[in-house]
Specification:
This protein has a domain of 76 residues. It is 34% helix and 23% strand. The protein is built from three helices and six strands. The strands form two sheets. A three-stranded antiparallel beta sheet has the order 1-2-3, with no helix packed on it. Helix 2 runs antiparallel to helix 3.
């Protein structure tokens, strides 16, 4: 191999290397400087055409005192979301229990009203059985003329360790007023 062959330009790793003629090779592809030579700037990273002092502020590479703060913010936001989700679940459980108590009281009053003429004990026993079938407990059953008043309770635990009671009262009896259906004339 001759000295001229050693100085001939060659392409290495897909880059075009040119011979500068002064004893060293220079790349035609612009490369960023080494890590310690020039800091990154706030105007979009390394820019070879703009020096660091013109309109751009140098940024420290170590991150400063904000290092790791995104993790803390993420944990704080996650904790807030968990607390809000637990609160929403507790409110939802309370509403479901209230609706369950209303349904049990309504159905118990309707079932008991069919037995009013047989006596208050039999009417209340029927209302209690229907409310128990709906996972409720009858706390009050009174007869007011031909109307039966039934109060039902449902126990709910919206959050662990917190027990609440949802109650509802319903009235059922015979229809009063004029008949509004078709009549025979």
């Amino acid at each position: 191999m001759t000295a001229a062959d050693r100085r001939a330009p060659r392409a290495r790793h897909g880059r075009d290397w040119n011979w500068s003629g002064r004893g060293r090779r220079r790349s035609t592809v612009q490369r960023p400087p080494d890590r310690g030579s020039r800091p990154l700037s706030r105007c979009g990273g390394f820019d070879a055409r703009r020096p660091a002092g013109r309109g751009c502020q140098p940024v420290s590479r170590c991150g400063g005192s904000d290092r790791g703060s995104a993790t803390l913010w993420l944990l704080a936001v996650g904790l807030v979301l968990v607390v809000l989700s637990l609160g929403a679940a507790a409110i939802g459980a309370a509403r479901v229990a209230r609706h369950q108590a209303r349904v049990a009281a309504d159905l118990g009053a309707l079932a008991g009203a069919t037995q009013v003429l047989a006596g208050p004990d039999r009417a209340c026993a029927r209302a209690t059985a229907i409310a128990a079938a709906n996972s409720a407990r009858v706390t009050g059953c009174t007869l007011d003329g031909l109307d039966l008043l039934v109060t039902a309770e449902v126990t709910v635990e919206p959050l662990p360790g917190m027990t609440r009671v949802a109650s509802a009262t319903a009235r059922a009896g015979p229809v009063r007023g004029e008949q509004t259906g078709p009549t025979d004339t």
